[in-house]
Design goal:
Chain lengths: 225, 225
DNA sequence: AAGTGTATGTTGTAATTCCAACAGAAAGGT
DNA sequence: ACCTTTCTGTTGGAATTACAACATACACTT
């Protein structure tokens, strides 16, 4: 249990809160842990959206079924990831998605309304927690905005350049590495891997960039296409 | 000035806070108003990301320039819209975007760190404000997630059906109206208007749906394509 | 060093989308 | 009613992507 708290303190939602402090505030938050075995549901669509979840161990996925029952995967969750907070904080009544365990999982659940509202004796660390929650959602927001910007481009080439130019700008350098392999980058940009590989080759031959594996280097030729 | 406060109380960020109460807490938040004339900058990329902005009057747009200086429009802002909060709450140092006035604008600026942190004498309405901020970001998050889900589909038809089926599901009815005209829907889904119109015609002829203007009705034929 | 499996690049064809152009329908103003 | 403007649906050819299939490169095991 002691170990559990020190692990928690490294996760984004509890950043800046020491293990002892976490132990002190968990009761304020209506916390409970739950174990879900592989393939089982963490949340089911239609359940009340009250919880902020933190995946402690294992892997899980967020899925949604459409009108006809076709299922699609919205996110893959890893230990330390926070999930469900957007639904609970948005004030919608029921979960529009399900969360399913891909492996045996341990989950920490917090009552979202208690996380959002400073408790009566206004513990100092609660403020930190709310700021972490805000920060987490803000970061997800930024990530979504970026992804949408890239995906909105018409062609594979434009999507690639949009992403790569932004990476270069973010690092302030023409050379950088990315956190994806080819398939991962294609999935992120919503394009086909082989078409993307072909496009990268063309860009290489045109002298616009160089790449090997996850390393890229943009040549600054000021072309606009 | 009195009118200004009652208008504010109708905006999302101040929902549930009465005009008098807004007047009381504005000083806690380091608030200031600013007028920007048409075409001028509200924020410029690279400025410190400290502010939560609320557009009071006029129209503005959020823009971003890439590595080569190509500009793209990320959002159009209307009165009542909150902007900049994701950058400030995420804890990044400088704004990655600029906000430009499309018409003469009046803007309310709040110091984000003061909004996020309950002030020393812990005014009650501050809690409401933080919850509104959380709720606003959560709602943006949900909207982004939905948009990405639709845009991730490969073909125009799949994007259309993804969106329409979700709308049907959300209303719990096969017939509904949408908040877009054809061009707006095409922009939202990231497809071409004329191709989308053609696809809608095909779906009509196939008996899968009926539509007139912003009204749609899905025929429940359980096809998976 | 050989063998295995995965990741990546290449190619050709079918399918889809983009783009421009246009015609009819709908909406708004005088 | 008339004109004007905007919105919508339709079409055809050019450009792009999807898909499948395969060759090569690379990492990891034995």
């Amino acid at each position: 249990m002691e170990d559990f708290l020190s692990v928690l303190s490294r996760y984004a939602l509890f950043q800046g809160v020491a293990p002892e402090e976490i132990q002190a505030i968990l009761p304020c938050l209506g916390s409970k842990t739950r174990s879900v075995s592989k393939g089982g549901p963490v949340f089911l669509e239609g359940e009340p959206a009250r919880w902020v979840g933190v995946l402690l161990t294992g892997m899980a996925q967020v899925v949604q079924d459409d009108y006809y029952g076709n299922r699609s995967v919205l996110a893959i969750l890893q230990p330390g990831d926070t999930f469900g907070e957007a639904f609970s904080c948005a004030g919608i009544a029921t979960m529009p998605v399900s969360v399913m365990a891909l492996t045996d999982c341990e989950i920490l659940l917090l009552d979202c309304s208690r996380v959002m509202t400073t408790c009566s004796h206004s513990c100092h660390f609660h403020t930190q927690l709310i700021q972490n929650l805000l920060k987490g959602m803000a970061l997800k927001n930024l990530a979504f905005t970026e992804k949408i910007r890239h995906m909105s481009k018409k062609t594979t080439r434009e999507k690639l350049l949009s992403y790569l130019l932004q990476q270069a700008k973010k690092r302030g350098a023409a050379a950088f590495t990315i956190p994806y392999d080819r398939q991962g980058l294609a999935d992120y940009l919503g394009v086909e891997r082989s078409a993307m590989s072909a496009e990268l080759s063309k860009l290489k031959k045109a002298g616009l960039l160089d790449t090997k594996g996850s390393w890229f280097c943009l040549k600054d030729t000021r072309r606009d296409d």
